[in-house]
Automatic annotation (TrEMBL):
The lineage of its organism: Bacteria, Bacillati, Bacillota, Bacilli, Lactobacillales. It comes from the Bacteria. InterPro entries: DltD (IPR006998), LTA_DltD (IPR023896). It comes from Carnobacterium maltaromaticum (Carnobacterium piscicola). One of its GO terms (biological process) is lipoteichoic acid biosynthetic process. Pfam families: DltD (PF04914). This is Protein DltD. The gene is dltD. Pathway: Cell wall biogenesis; lipoteichoic acid biosynthesis.
Length: 423
């Protein structure tokens, strides 16, 4: 064997592998279609690789029965009364598609919708708003950065949307986060959008190439979908009566909640109390007296979500959950402040035509909350009573939406609820 042949045999396979990998990354390719099992499992997976991508999201949203449920950590608490379990048990014509986990806030959901693109057009949806998002600065860097998707951000940069206050505001907010500014090219493009300018021809070419690489990475590495949570849903089905009756379910939820929260006076699930609260319980007494959700950038971050939903002609129900009343009293969290938050977010929604399911006054109901701030047991049953008619309807009524850019302003972020004008 000649020296050249030996050399080729040694390095040839490596060269071929590198060429193939580069082709897979840089060229538009179809790796594998997203299978039905992947789509079904992804509805409850709530995994980071799906959240930062777009392939699985888009395939799922193309299915009429898949209804996006936007929220945060409450979505991952799979008790017997969770929306995913109820829909499966009672063979409903829709499947809740869970989007969000701990730390997912408005800007993360906005980018997720950018990744879903036109697959959201005319979709019904549910959006659960957590009061805890609405701290002064909006999403903390640690939370936003951990969910940040370069792919979805390049979709935002390259979207055909014309300059608008919403687009400028979103770019301005993204630039406040380290994960965004670590990509200097992305940072420069967002600065242009922030100023209402178009990106240059060269920047657009770079952005398209970068997006293609990220899309291919998503197709290659974002395709795995765990079925772990789908099994959790299946395991809960046996705990529900075979025939749906909301009053019967409420009684069942009361009983389950009572049995599941026997080691504490707050009606919090035993495991959560034992691991998360009991070790530091004494330190938490009165610890939330200064918490404030009335003044926040999050109000305007939320407004760009509303704008994106209306641009897609989505029909959405917005849910305002309560806080566990017993826990609120122990930690000193202000009920007046929470009432002001609810008044402010409700005004932002209803004054523009959006429809709200307000559960904020139900925090004192027994076993309504599974822990300190997350809905569960009877809370899910109460929510289902209001949501199911909307989700089951073939063509539910949709209110006329009139967006108001005032809600993007710092004036609105800082406006006390008592100063909201009344008609």
């Amino acid at each position: 064997m000649t020296m050249k042949r030996k050399l080729f045999m040694a390095v040839g396979p490596l060269v071929v592998a590198v060429v193939v990998l580069l082709g897979l990354l840089f060229l538009p390719v179809t790796i594998l279609p997203t299978g039905q099992k992947q789509i079904n499992n992804s509805a409850t997976a709530i995994s980071t690789n799906i959240m930062k991508g777009e392939k699985v999201y888009q395939a799922a949203m193309e299915e009429k029965r898949m209804i996006p449920f936007f929220g945060s950590s409450e979505l991952s608490r799979f008790d017997a009364f969770h929306p995913s379990v109820l829909a499966e048990k009672y063979d409903r014509n829709y499947t809740p598609y869970l989007i969000g986990n701990a730390g997912s806030q408005s800007l993360t959901h906005f980018l997720a919708m950018e990744g879903m693109g036109e697959s959201l057009t005319n979709k019904k949806a549910v959006f659960i708003i957590s009061p805890q998002w609405f701290v002064k600065g909006g999403a903390p860097s640690m939370m936003f950065d951990s969910h940040f998707s370069p792919l979805q951000t390049y979709e935002f940069i390259l979207s055909d949307e014309v300059d608008s206050p919403q687009r400028r505001y979103a770019a301005e907010r993204f630039l406040e986060y380290k994960a965004v500014c670590s990509d200097q090219n992305m940072e420069k493009m967002l600065h242009k959008i922030e100023k209402g300018e178009s990106i240059t021809k060269g920047q657009k070419g770079y952005a398209k190439l970068k997006r293609q690489v990220l899309r291919n990475e998503d197709k290659l590495f974002g395709a795995y979908v765990s079925g772990k949570n789908a099994k959790k849903v299946q395991n809960q089905l046996k705990n529900l009566p075979n025939t749906y009756d909301n009053e019967q379910l409420d009684q069942k939820a009361y009983e389950v909640g009572k049995k599941s929260s026997t080691n504490n006076p707050y009606q919090i699930k035993n495991g959560f109390y034992k691991t998360r609260i009991q070790p530091i319980e004494g330190e938490l007494a009165g610890s939330q007296k200064t918490f404030d959700y009335e003044f926040s950038k999050e109000f305007s971050d939320f407004q760009v979500v509303l704008d994106k939903m209306e641009a897609n002609n989505m029909n959405v129900r917005f849910v305002i959950p309560p806080v566990n009343q017993k826990w609120l009293e122990y930690t000193g969290l202000s009920q007046e402040m929470l009432n002001n938050f609810s008044k402010k977010i409700t005004h932002q929604l209803t004054s523009q035509g959006f429809q709200v399911i307000d559960l904020s006054g139900d925090g004192s109901e027994d076993y309504f909350m599974q822990d300190t701030i997350h809905i569960g047991w009877r809370g899910w049953v109460a929510l289902d009573k209001q949501l199911d008619p909307f989700l089951s309807a073939e063509k539910p009524d949709k209110s006329k939406i009139t967006l108001n850019n005032y809600f993007l302003s710092k004036e609105w972020q800082d406006l006390p609820a008592k100063d909201i004008p009344t008609k």
